[in-house]
Each structure stands twice: as structure tokens, then as C-alpha cells.
Input
Amino acid sequence: MDAQKFIEYKKIFRIAPAGYGKTYSIVEALKFTQGRQLILTHTHAGVSSIKEKIKKEKIESSKYKVETISSFAQKYANSFYIGENKPSEDNPKIYHPFVVNFSIELFKDRLVSKVFTSTYSGLFVDEYQDCTEEQHSLIMTLSNLVPTRILGDPLQGIFEEINKSKIDFPLELLNNDFIEAPSLSIPNRWLHNGNNKDLGNKFIKIRDDLEKRQPIDLDYLQCDGVKILEIEKDASENERINIFREKINLLLSNQAFKSLLIIIPEGENGKGNIYARANFKSRIDHGNKLTLIEAIDHESFYSLAKSLDLMVFENRNIKFMKEEILVKLFNKTNVNEWFNLKGVKKKQGKDVVKGDILNSIITELLSDISLEKVLDVLILLNKKYKFKSKRPSLYYQVLNAIKTAIHTPSSVFDAMTEQRNTVRRMGRNIDGQCIGTTLLTKGLEFDNVVIINAHEFACSKHLYVALTRSCKRLFIFSENKILSPYKAPIVTAIKPTAEI
Amino acid sequence: MAQIVHIGIKNFRGIKYLETNITSDFNCLVGRGDSCKTTILHAISSALSPSWNLNFSDLDFYNCDITEPFEITISLIDVPQELLIENKFGLYIRGFNKITKKIVDDLLIDDFNGELQEALTIKLLVDSTLEPNWFVTNDREHEDKQISANDRARFNCYMVSDYVDKHFSWNKGNPLYALLKNNSQQEENSSKNIAIDALRHAKEKINEHDFEELSFTIDQIKSEAASIGLDLGNTNTTIDFKELLSKEGRLSLHDYQVPFRLKGKGSKRLASIAIQSALTKSGGIMLIDEIEQGLEPDRIKLLSRVLKEENHGQIFMTTHSRDVITELDSTDLIIIHHNRRTSEIIINNFEQKIENLQKCVRACPEAFFAKKVIVCEGATEVGICRAFDQHRQLVEKKPPLSFTDCAYIDGTGNELESRAVQLNDANFKVAILCDSDQIGLNSQKTDLANKGIRLFDCETNNDIETQIFLDLPWKGINELIEYVIKANGWNENVIKSKVQKYFDSELPENWLESDTVGMRIALAEASTNKETDKDKKSKDKDKNKKKKTDWFKRVDHGEFLGSIIFKYIVELKKQRIGEIFNGLSSWIDD
Output
């Protein structure tokens, strides 16, 4: 079924494996659609990638609008909500479902529907497998207003949450009068110039095995560009890190690897979460070449901003400053080197003078605190006292939020919220050499992918997503060559309903 | 097309605060001078202005107090579809409840019965920096969104005022241009910018001209320049294209060779109105200040009628002309009262057609320009009021009634009461000047008083003539008789026979000197041609004929009657007639 035929249906969906050109088929369809199309997906990475593909095809910007479902819903909910009961944005678990549910009500309203239909003449939804129940019913509501085309792949449905019933895709669509378009049959991603054709073909069997819940033999993937690196089961933590560092640093300085993604599986007890990843990165990447991908709505952005507000407006003490701000923002060792719970440590030897200066600055700060002074101190700690941040983007976002809070003026929290919203609206580019998770990189593609500890994937879907991010070369570190990722669904470290 | 449903003004010029619904597509603002009618038009035109900038000064702030910003909000329905899309102002729509005429913001709750229609509210905000800022606003939590001049131009709102010259040019932002754009939307093949193309053509023509007369001077410069090393070999003379384009009104309407801007005031205004009515035919908002300016009464009437009948957009106009008002319905009127003491502005628009008020609009348009209205029972009383006004000016040295914003109108007898009530309901201060011989009215007196309507009437069962003939000194009565004889071309015998009819016995020879109550009553009855028992028997009596033979039932006769009253007003002080007019006088001056 070609693109032109595809858009003739009022309610249609298509399932296709990763890399077969689902997103591309949206771009193709845009060449035939009339009026402005709304294209919804789940992640900001997805938004950027769709936009990029559309731009390549030189399609007029008036013909489309790409957004995440959440920011789309949020835009309407924020514009039309009246009342006191809207949950705060720093509580994404409650906030996002609320926003989506409220917008469902909105799109049942005559006037709001009219705004929607006079703006958009069609709807595309990508990555449908990631829809929550609320998002699904929002899309169903919209599908009654304009022709709706849905794309997805159940095997890439990684936004799971054990407490919440996920929608049964594609059954729920069939129940809602959607018809299924034939799947796509060509692994386009790997057929492009210079990409690894063999790898693409190997993924066909891997997918098949995963769907049938068969064990996966990593050796089957062996071909040009694929390396399986076994890790000794009894290797110590340091030994493992040494191996990773050695191999990865070789790649980082190689021109052929300027598009590189390192994927770390997430697991229980904070395994692979942002702190673990930041820590991992600081240990293997001494040259600081890797970009640490952050979730847009990670609570640490908001909690730090809140702590800063408390510090300034409620005059908190040095203990609060150390524990709730400095340690969260900078490396713990840096902070502990200069601070204890009572203030600046007494330094000896060459640091005596620096210690005294810092002490007087902190004393002055605490005696008459202001956002301006806090900003100066943070910059001073970073520049003069060499406090490093494992999460550079958190550090810069905090500095920017403080600056905005000073100029507006507003609270740091409000400034941060606004700032994160801007990122959400604009979408962001993730490319170059990055470190992230399956959740953060779903929908993206990289020439080279390194998977750390592949044996730790508890879920077939995450493994599938991780593998299929690579176009050319794939490096897999694993304790076992035979993987059986069919354990109970993992508790994802990041709230599935949150904005990623 | 866009229609204004609500106007809110804060701190703008003479208006401290004003808020009103607009329920009609044809609105005529009436009220005494300085009641801020024109300010309201300016407020609308500023808020919906297609100009990218407007110049304001400190004088535009209420009391010239720039510490408080001024704010104009205009809510519109039926706004152009293209403004309602999401990335324009779709997320800013409000609900206009077609039944309650209220603007609401919670669409989910308030649209329960589907009576909402989408509306946008435009806000113009100017603070002490004098920079105008235009927004689309609502009362929900999100921030206002700026609206560009281009988007404001889609409302097609233009004002006809004293300065209309630019309305005849094809420049962007003028109604002619908007009309052109409107038309070209319908016809796809029309050229993009005819005006600029024509100017280009003009420039080409000028380029062709060789300006031979100038060549000698140019050559001189050329050689001079060459001597200091500058090559000006290609220098020639033509017109700067930028000049052609940038000047306002370079391409404009002409009557043969005469530009419209040189035409007379009236014609200019009519032409400007014509351009804009063409616009309002496809929907647009036309603002006309003092529509009667520069026009003859017949043209005023024609214009008002045509505007009202052919209007497909929305029109706001102000007028001081009764010729305008007589052409309109009560629903077309917005009456504005400005209370100078409290600086409160009271607005009255009549959402429902009120039949009686309707007649009042036609019959007594002047009432609608006043704050106080004396509703007179008939022509006699109207005449007396005229004399009263004269007397106040000449003897009491008071300003004319019109200066004190007081009008007197003819209540034509049976409509008297309802007319007074309607006017009272429309926020006018109302007094009634009447006989006391109408039983119906007597029973309503308390009701009227309770509504705040002042009643000035005669002693029980007396009509005004009787009251006058009873109260006047006899000299005055003689003067009246003399006037009646003269006015009717009678001789003394004719009048004597008329009085005889109502006098029980034979009139004495010197009846003109015989000041008795009986004689006074007979005269009064003769003056109103009162039905005698004999008359009641003959049924073929024609009522109209009776009217005509009444001595004073005409404004001019009433005026004479009045002049006699006021001649003897000092002597009448203790009499009912004196009480009536002294009372009325203090009511007027209050």
C-alpha cells in the first residue's frame, strides 16, 4: 500500500519492525496530504528525528506540526483549564495523566474541536505501542475529528509500568474501527548507503525469536561490524570498568565513530538510572567526550530548583545548602573536600588562603542571602574551586534558571519549569557521541551502538530497541552469549508516563 | 464577519471605567456633548487598529494620570476563521453565551447546552511609556498573546472622522486596500499588487525622459568629479522609486484630476463612508463620528437609512442630529449619560424593541440627547415650556434648557404615561407636565412617583386651560382674549357667543370686565370647546374638528399662553400655576 493510498483511509494503522521506515512513511504521506497535519509521538528525540526527516524532503513547514502527545495535551490543558486542582508539573506521575484526561474532555467540546479541526486536517501518531491508556483514549477522541493514521510496533513497547494496564495494541485499534494496513517489508535503515545490510537481515530472525520468546544467540549476529565482547562473570567492578574504558576510548577518538550511542540497561534498585549513568560516564570518559542524555522532566531539575528557592526565600542553613544543593549539583568528593555540615572546612597548607576566602564568601552569603549571590558562589565553585558536575546539563540548566529568576523576577522553580517547557516545545537534537538508555533513545538511530551488559536486559522489547538503534556497527558487552530476556517486566527507573 | 459583543474601557480619556454589552449590528451612540461618545469610537478603533503603531500622549489617560495604564478590551464573535487556528489564537477562544450575552472562559462547564459561540477578546494596553501593546486575552491562567497589526487588520475596522484623506489612498492599512484584498480573495486571478506595478510603470516612463535641460549641469559635475578621480559617467536623472512607494497616498482616488482629499467635507465623508460600507457588506466594523457632519438634512436621512438597511457588518456611529434618530429603531440607540460628579458613565442599550419607546424615538428624538426630559401632555404644554424657557433666559438670566441638558417633548395625551415610564427606565430624569383631568393618570400618580418621575399637574379635575383661567389676574385674561380674537380673525361678538354657550345666564354687557369664577370657568370651557350636554346628543360631532377650534391646542398658541403666565408669574406665586412652574424650575436646576 503506497503513501497515497494509506492516507485515503479515515482510520488506519500499520505495524512494522524497527528500521523499516515507519517514520519515513509519514514523511512520504505528507507529500499527498492536504492542509496541516498533526504528527504526534512520545519522545522529544522522536520529535527531532521526525522533523529532521521531513526537512530533508523539503516539505513546507505549514503542512505539518510535530509534537509529543504530552506537550500537545499540555498546550490545550494549560490554555483552557480553570481551577485550582491542576497538579504541579514537578509531579509528572500525576500531572501527565491529568493533563491528558482533561484534554480528552476538551476535545469533546464543540468549540475546542473546532479550533482543532480548523488547524489540522489530519493526524499521524508514531510509536503507538508506547501509548498509555489515557493517551490512547485521547487519540481515539481526536480520530473522530480528523483522519487518523497510526504507526507502531508492539515489540518496541518499552514504556511499561507494572501497576498500570497498558493498552493492547493493536487490538484496541481494531475495536475502534481502525483497519490494518499491510506491514512494511524492507529493512530500509540498513539498506541505505554505507549501512550494514547484513545486520539488518540478521535482525529479522532476532525479532522473530524475540516474538516467540526464544533464547537469543548473540553469536548469530556475528558479521562485519559486529563484535560480541564477553565479560568474565567473576570480574570485579573495577576490572569491568577498565575494560569498558579501554574499548570505548578507542572508539571515542576514532572519526568513524562520531555517531555513537552507548546504551546501559536500566534495572531494579536504581541500576542504570541517571546517577548511575553519570557515574559510569565519569569513570570511563575522562576526556569528557560523551554527552549524557537527560530526561527532560527528570525530577532532579525541579527538586534542585525548589531547594534553591527554599535556600533563598526561607534562609536555610549551610547543612541544607551542602546536602540539597551542592552535593546534588557537583561531585560529592569536590564538595566534601571543602565543606562540612557546619561550613567551609579549615584548610591546611597551600589551600589556607583559598579556604579563608571561601569561608568569608559563604558567611557573607548566609548572612544576607540572595539569588544573585548564590549564582556567583556556584560559578565561583565551578571555576575557581574546580567543582565538577557529573551532569553538565543539569548544572547549566540550574544556572540559567537562576539567571531567569533574577531577571524576571520569579522563583527558580518557575523559571526551571518554563525552561524545560521550552525544550519540550522546541524538541532537541541528540547526536554525536552519547550515553543513554533505550527509553531515551527509542526512535533514534546511530551509526555505532555499544551495549553495556546486554545480559542485564530483563525484557525482550528493551533488548530489541537497543540492538536496532545501530546502522553500521554494533558492540555488545555481555556476560552470556545466549540471552533470555523474558523475566518479569522491569520496573522502569523513569516514570513511563513522564516526558522523556 | 467579526462583530463586537462587549466593550470594556479603563482610564481612557474621559472614561474612568465603562463596560457594556453590544447587542446590535447597528449602533447609534447618543448623548449630550462630552458624554464620551467619540471616546468610545476611538477606543474601538484603537483596539482594533490595523496600524502597527499608534501615537498616544498623556492626554489619553483619564485625568492625565499616567500612573494607571489605560486598557481597552473588545470582545468579538464571528472572528475570521484564520485567527481561530491553534497557532494563532485558537487556544485563546472564549465562549459567548448567545442567550445570556455573557463572555465565559470555562468552555467545558458553560457550554453544557451548546449555547456558546467562540469569541476573542482583544486588549489594548498603554502605560506611561505610551507604547501601545495589543493582546488577545482571556481570564484563564495562561499569558496574553500579542496580536500583530496584520491580524488586527482582519477585523476590517475603520473610522470615518474629520481626518479621512488617507481613506482615498490605496496604501496598506486603509479601507480601500482592505476592500481590494477582500475582493481578490474571491477572484483568484487578480494581480498581487496593482498599485506597486503601476508605480513601477510610472517610474519607467520617467526613466525614458532624458531631462535634456539638466544635462549641462550634470556634465559639469561629471567633469568636476573626474578631475578628482571619481567616475560618474552613468549619471542621469530620474525619480527615486523609494519616494514613489513610501509616500502615503501617492496613488489615490481622483475626481477626474482633482484628488478626493480636496473635495468638500460632506462629500469626502460620504465617499469615505461609501468605501467602508462596501467593506461592511462583506463584514467589517465601521465607525462614524458625527455622521451628520457636513451634510444637509435630506442627505443625513438618506445616509442613515441606507447604512441601516444595507449593513452586513457592524456599524457604530455618533450623532447629534434628530434627523438621524428619526430614521432609527430604539434597538439601534445606545444612550450615554455621563455623570460628571461621580464620573460614572451610564450606558443604555435597548436589547428588546420597545414599541412605545420606538414611537418616542420617532416623535421626540430630541429627548435622546438630554439628561432630563419634561414630558408634556400636549401641544399646549409644549408651547408653554417654550415660553418658560424664554422666560428663564430673559428674566431669570438662566441658561437655555438645552444647556442644562433638559428637553421637553410632546407626550400626545394617551401615550404620556408610558412614554414617561420608558424614558425613566432608560435612565433619563423625567418630569410630567399635565392636566389633572385624566382619570387613568390620576390613579397611576403614586406609581409614577415611586419610580422617581416628578409630576407637575393641575388641581383635581382641572385641565391646564381651566387652571390658567382660574389663576391668572384678570388683565392677563383680557390679553388672552385679545390674542384669540386676533389669531382667529374674529370680532368680539363671535367670541362672546362662544363664551355664552358655557355661561348659565345672559352674558352681561361688560362681560370682559366681569371677573367672576363663573365667567373664568365659562372662558376656560369655551377655550377647550368642552362638550356640552347638547353636544353629547348630536352624535355626528367630528372630534378633529373640535380640536381645531380649541383656542390654545397648538404649540404657538401654547407659547403665547405661556408668555402671559410668565408675565404675571410673580403674582401667580401662591396659585397652582405658579407652584407648577416654580417647582419645575427647581427640578430643572437640581
Remarks:
- Chain B touches chain A through 23 residues (CB under 8 Å).
- DSSP finds 22 helices and 20 strands in chain B.
